[in-house]
Design brief:
The complex is a heterodimer. Chain A contains 15 helices and 14 strands. By secondary structure, chain A is of the alpha/beta class. In chain A, strand 2, helix 3 and strand 3 form a beta-alpha-beta unit. Chain A is globular and about 75 Å long. Chain B is an alpha/beta fold. In chain B, a hairpin with a 2-residue loop joins strand 15 and strand 16. The radius of gyration of chain B is 23 Å and the shape is globular. The chains are: A alpha/beta, B alpha/beta. At the A-B interface, helix 5, helix 6, helix 7, helix 15 and strand 14 of A face helix 6, strand 17, strand 18 and helix 9 of B. Strand 14 of chain A pairs antiparallel with strand 18 of chain B.
Chain lengths: 408, 423
């Protein structure tokens, strides 16, 4: 591997993230710098000495994990900001991998994004969302975390765990399904890091990623296929076939439904024009005509005689996240609404409590006022675009703030 | 009134954090020169750009004017004054006027004049007054957008005018406060955002296109300028005090501490040093020492800034400004001195951002050479340019001002003199 690879960090956050990093070690052929952040000492035990590890919140959680509580996870990672900064400093790209819906990844990714932004390091967040059979609260938490993250960082790739259903047999044991999810996430992280590590011929660089996903709520399918000269003369076609079998791609039909896609063929300088043309043309035919496709070829000596085909298929869900109002629009209004002339309602909270739906005949209830206007309490509301801007933005968006701890 | 033989203009600013008075004129080279300056804290007399305590405002303004006189070393007679106006009462409209061209298809001055006059004939509700109007752009045959249509061949010419309006009662309240201080002859309101544009934008920026954002303590004014015309302008009721208030509410601080944290850029300093916590002993109530993660501050500030720049981005999208030729964003006002704000602007709008310091002013500039005073100094340049470009226009304004109460609508129309921005 080249030195350039050393400055790319694959960072696993939370339990799932740590497992991905562990899997990358066990699979051997990585070449990128690896690190993990978690609150659970046991999860990091196997990695100590092999990867840089940050045991978050060890001073007060004693390495016992945060029990799937996103607030505790957030507090724990926020308190390790210095360690995270040391971890990220000097890197030219950070690929953060984790599973949302739990504590550390859901709470901590924002700190990682903030540190990366402060250090001006391009960052890609590859995050899975819980299976549909997991609790509603977990899935809601994951979606809220993604919405929050998209506002502050450029490239967030959301991969639903449910995509695994399309490739795994229903008889697959659940533990095996999670293991497969972990292995596939590791392959995808490697694929993305590999894709962005080489010299980009056109489009499939970080700017291409940004153009495709910045500020948009989207769901991604990711497939990586690798082959080498040993697989026969048409190594690119073999790589494409392997890519199509990737569980996180969700099947070939997902490609035809995609609104945008990043297609990348990576290899060393021996990659020929004919191979590139044939491969990218074949891939393009899998998508519908008006899909926004970004084709590219990346070169790196690290690939030797191997070629790697990486496809990120993107499906936009409901337009841009340009303003917080767009997030709220997606939730259906209550059937019985009471007009509040003075103040805008706060958005959903992180507690995961669902709103009670009233029947049309039922008397509605005023929501408990859980916001304060501070110095603007005594003046006429500053209504703008339908919101009272005097209410703190974080309160209107239902964001929980860590007020810190008392020092004795 | 004169100072060493030069005409003196007084400019007043009513801000949430400060009320300022400035005396200035032209130096020998024709550039704006500051003769005297006075500034006092508003202390709640002005909230969100509007006067909330009239008597206190007059008292503070009087003090600021006295300070300005002292600083100039001369007590100026109180005759001609320009005052900056902002707040929720500001709105804007686009006037459209068209002319069909028969016979010789070449567009000349008469056709342009007619189109502009038609565009200015936009009826204005009685409760609003027009502060300024600027030519935005011209359209030829309904398809081609041009800056100057003179000499083009066409069968139809459309003129688009950007008008800035203010609520009559707010304008009159400020005028009354100024009259109480002895100014009688000319009391001319100027939209604060336009004054900032006059103070901080370069000629290239006005030509190529720029978004000017003046982040004050109470409100933020914006102006989109392209091809020397104003495409859009307005006020968003978010300022640095909103950020401080959010921190005070969210982290249980006193507003004074929150303001210091915001204005001194303490969180930026902590981030640069790699610290994970902010330590405080000052709670809103007597509280023990707390260690608050830097991320909590970041979250609160970022949410507010993303909201502000989200509004501005939508405004730019509505105007379909040609971003490929756009120079970028110029941030001015006190908020421009806070690094986190510039960073948010950069990441939200995705274009180049620079800090707008006042450009090319001479004289007693000590303490004024920073974005906090961009609008005040710009107000002086506006006064000088309006007075020098066309003195006959000002004569009309003077007469119109004096007679407005008597002749109403007719005089208002006489004041509808379209200015060409920055010329």
């Amino acid at each position: 591997m080249t030195n350039g690879h050393d400055s790319i960090l694959i960072l696993g956050i939370g339990g799932a993230g740590a497992k991905v990093i562990s899997h990358l070690f066990e699979s051997g052929a990585c070449g990128f710098e690896l690190a993990a952040v978690d609150t659970d000492k046991n999860a990091l035990d196997g990695l100590i000495g092999r990867a840089k590890c940050v045991l978050a919140g060890s001073a007060w959680r004693d390495g016992s994990g945060c029990g799937g509580d996103a607030i505790r996870g957030e507090q724990a990672v926020a308190r390790e900001r210095q360690a995270v900064t040391a971890l990220l400093k000097g890197k030219r790209l950070v690929v953060t991998v984790g599973g949302l819906g739990g504590g550390v990844a859901t709470g901590g990714v924002r700190t990682i994004a903030s540190v990366a932004k402060a250090l001006s390091i391009p960052s890609v967040f590859l995050l899975t969302t819980p299976f549909s059979f997991e609790s509603f609260a977990r899935r809601k938490l994951a979606e809220e975390c993604l919405d929050e993250l998209r506002r502050v960082t450029d490239v967030v790739l959301r991969i639903p765990n449910d995509l695994l259903f399309s490739m795994l047999h229903p008889d697959t044991p659940i533990l095996e399904a999670y293991a497969e999810s972990c292995a596939e996430l590791a392959r995808t992280a490697l694929g993305i890091a590999g894709m962005l590590s080489g010299e980009s011929a056109f489009q499939t660089d970080y700017a291409g990623f940004m153009a495709a996903v910045r500020g948009r709520r989207c769901s991604c399918g990711a497939g990586v296929g690798v082959s080498s000269s040993a697989d026969g003369p048409d190594r690119c076609s073999v790589a494409v076939e392997r890519m199509l079998e990737s569980p996180f791609l969700g099947g070939v039909e997902k490609l035809s439904e995609a609104d945008a896609a990043i297609l990348c063929l990576a290899g060393n300088a021996s990659l020929t024009l004919g191979e590139t043309k044939r491969c990218l043309e074949n891939l393009s035919t899998l998508f519908r005509e008006n899909a926004m496709l970004m084709n590219g070829t990346n070169f790196s000596d690290a690939f030797a005689d191997r070629v790697q085909v990486t496809v990120i298929a993107i499906r936009y869900e409901d337009g841009e996240i340009s303003s917080p109002a767009a997030v709220e629009d997606s939730s259906k209004p209550l059937p019985l609404q009471i007009l509040e002339p003075m103040a805008a309602k706060p958005r959903s909270t992180r507690s995961g409590k669902s709103k009670v739906r009233h029947s049309p005949l039922e008397q509605g209830e005023f929501e408990l006022q859980s916001y304060s206007k501070g110095i603007y309490a005594g003046i006429a509301p500053s209504l703008y675009a339908g919101e009272d801007l005097d209410i703190p933005t974080f309160q209107r968006h239902g964001i929980v703030i860590d007020k810190g701890i008392v020092v004795r | 009134m004169s100072f060493n033989g030069r005409e003196v203009f007084t400019v007043l600013e009513f801000g949430d954090s400060k009320i300022c008075a400035l005396h200035g004129g032209r130096d020998k080279g024709g550039n704006p020169e500051i003769f005297g300056f006075g500034c006092r804290e508003s202390k709640g007399a002005v909230v969100k750009g509007d006067i909330s305590d009239f008597a206190r405002t007059v008292e503070i303004l009087s003090g600021a004017l006295d300070d300005a006189d002292k600083s100039a070393g001369e007590v100026f007679s109180r005759e001609k004054v320009y005052y900056l106006i902002s707040g929720r009462g500001i709105s804007s409209r686009c006037g459209e006027g068209n002319v069909m061209i028969y016979g010789d298809p070449r567009i000349g001055d008469p056709q342009i004049q007619e189109a502009v006059e038609k565009a200015q004939n936009l009826p204005i509700p009685q409760e609003l007054v027009q502060l300024d109007s600027f030519s935005s752009y011209f359209m030829i045959d309904g398809t081609t957008r041009v800056k100057n249509p003179c000499g083009h061949s066409a069968s139809r010419l459309d003129a688009f005018i950007h008008m800035i309006l203010a609520e009559r009662n707010r304008v009159d309240t400020m005028r009354s406060a100024i009259r109480d201080l002895g100014f009688e002859r000319e009391i001319i309101p100027v939209f604060s955002g336009i004054a900032s544009a006059y103070g901080c934008l370069t000629l290239d920026e006005k030509e190529d296109g720029v978004l000017l954002v003046d982040i004050g303590a109470g409100v933020t004014e914006y102006v989109i300028v392209c091809n020397d015309g104003v495409l859009s302008s307005g006020v968003v009721p978010i300022g640095t005090d909103n950020v401080a208030n959010d921190l005070a509410v969210g982290l249980d601080f006193s507003i004074e501490l929150a303001r210091r944290i915001v204005l001194e850029g303490r969180i930026e300093k902590l981030k640069r040093s790699g610290a994970a916590y902010f330590e405080t002993e000052c709670g809103a109530s007597p509280a023990p020492k707390r260690r608050i993660p830097v991320g909590s501050f970041e979250k609160i500030i970022e949410e507010r800034m993303l909201e502000l720049f989200g509004f501005l981005r939508k405004t730019m999208e509505k105007q379909a400004v040609p971003l490929h030729t756009f120079t970028g964003v110029v941030l001015t006002g006190g908020g421009a001195m806070i690094p986190a704000f510039a960073e948010s602007a950069r990441s939200s709008l995705g274009i180049h951002v620079r800090t707008g310091d006042p450009l090319a002013f001479a004289g007693a500039m000590t303490g004024l050479d920073n974005p906090r005073f961009g609008a005040l100094l710009g107000g002086l340049r506006f006064a000088l340019e309006v007075n020098s470009v066309n003195s006959s226009q000002i004569s009309i304004l003077k007469v119109a001002d004096a007679l407005e109460d008597f002749t109403g609508e007719l005089m208002r129309k006489m004041k509808n003199v379209t200015k060409v921005f920055g010329k």
